[in-house]
Amino acid sequence: MSDGGDLVELAKRRGFFLQSAGAYGGVSGFYTFGPSGAALKQNIEDTWRDRFAIQEGNMEVDAPTVMPEPVFEASGHLDGFDDMLVECPECAESHRADHIVEDNTDIEEAESIPVAEVEELIAEYELVCPTCGTGLAGQAIEDFNLMFETNIGPGSADPGYLRPETAQGIFIEFPQLAEYARNQLPFGVTQIGRAYRNEISPRKSLLRVREFTQAELELFVDPEEDEPDLAAVTDVTAPFYPAREQEAADGQPYEATIREVVDDGVVGKPWIAYYLGVAKQWYESIGVDMDRFRFRQHLSGERAHYAADCWDAEAEVDGDWIELGGFAYRSDYDLSKHDSYSDEEFTVFKQYDEPVTVERATVDPDMSYLGPEFGGSAGAVADALEALAERDPDAFDGSEVVVEVDGESHAVPVEKTDFGVEEVTESGEHITPHVVEPSLGIDRALYTALDHSYREDEVDGEERTYLALPQEVAPTTVGVFPLMDRDGMGEYARDLVEELRAAGLAVTYDDSGAIGRRYRRQDEVGTPFCVTVDYATLGEARDDEGEPAAPDTVTVRERDTTAQKRVPVADLPETLRALRDGERTFDDL
RNA sequence: GCGCCGUUGGUCCAGUGGUAGGACAUUAGCUUCCCAAGCUAAUAGCCCGGGUUCAAUUCCCGGACGGCGCACCA
Length: 589
What we know:
CATH superfamily of the largest domain: Bira Bifunctional Protein, Domain 2
Number of domains: 4
Number of strands: 28
Structural class: alpha+beta
CATH class of the largest domain: Alpha Beta
Distance between the termini: 30 Å
Number of helices: 19
CATH architecture of the largest domain: 2-Layer Sandwich
């Protein structure tokens, strides 16, 4: 509800976030969370942890932010995160060189072609600038990788990268994590942590930055057997914007329940639907306005090739729809990649209900024959025989079997292969789990919650700005004020602060200026409740002359309505705790 | 990375070739006491580098940072 500028101004003035290193001119794309922002962020992370890790029975890990190069060779970030930019000598526009090649030749996947060759291709095909038509031959291609590079240890022999996403830290430890899960699927692993992308052009304050916090869940499932229990979210409604609606001329997002989108196949993967339901509830709980929220399905062109289905959570901020998080069914892509690139196996052993007995063809080639016969190729021939036996046992029916090694055919007498068929009992098989990945940006969620909480109203003819943050995530839960710091009210209030803090509440004390001013200060940082110690509090406490003392009371004021109620001091810690945790409402007092 | 515009106390702005003023905020005192009241005082600023000039916050060039547009966003 803010116009962006107002929110950024409030955020800086009230300590939510500010650009880092301002004393040194500032640096683009890096922000420091001030006291209010750090508390808010922590609270948001805590609710995410509770919902996505604790309540789901998932495990949380905390991996390094720096990883060695091979990790990103396997993950594809080293190539895939690489942009080849070529600048037009005439109009100075930068373009993706690989895209220009793909668009104008039959070549596909130009991204994986070395830069020098792409430069040659541009010259060879006489490719031109898409903007102004000037020839690009001879222009140097700038290789720009979005990952921050560093060196591990002295020298440059061991390059490392700041992780561009937290997920790889989970994937690469899969073998051990599976062990922790007793090799039982499904199991989920979460991580909240920083990730880094050396963006070409950071924009829009917190929404596009170079260092940010992600909260990710990698759920490992057996694609053939595991299904989510949708019961908990089946009636959750959310706005859905499927690909077919986006592509239709008059397509619109529409409201539906999780059950509906699963039943009619709009969300193809039940696991994805389940976490869309969970996420919707979570976003709502941290203050995202559901009237400016939707789940948008990726169009086929924008989906990664391995993703069977992918949805984004989006929110409308300053008139633009921004991505808050992605929900991707990544199949076995990540684990298979690490399985083949690393020395370890990224599989789990799945036991059959009943052991099965199968006939398996085996060979045990006579190397004393293969060696002299095939020389250096002997080993490869033996491997080829083994592969062939598995693939096509019938090939061993004759007296000779032919295998190809490096394009050359080699004939081997079957009698030298010790070909045989034996019965083997198998109790299970190694399977590569599929990955369901809800991946959320904490900073964007925080910014959106702030933006959607921003309110302006009038109280007694005076303008007021406040943040209607949910009490569960507000940086401070309670402001405690003496009506004035005099006649013992200040001491009473300060004692009360200690008591409330001991009860686990986030409390701030303020005795500066008029009472109304203090209320407004707390309004601006979204403090949901303010407690004021007044003369009545003391008067009741001091009731003497033999009269039984009435219980001390204070006023509790609600942020959004500015309404006040008197509450006995003795009940105050428990009352405020119940209000914060949503067990009671202010109206119930 | 390109183009346009911008950068003055904590915040929002005004202004000037001779180093600056307001509002709000903050602090102290007086006063008031349940919704940004009043009075007095205090704290606090010209993004950085180079150039022109006797003198630059002001003009010029470059840079950093910000906003918008383009490109980019695995």
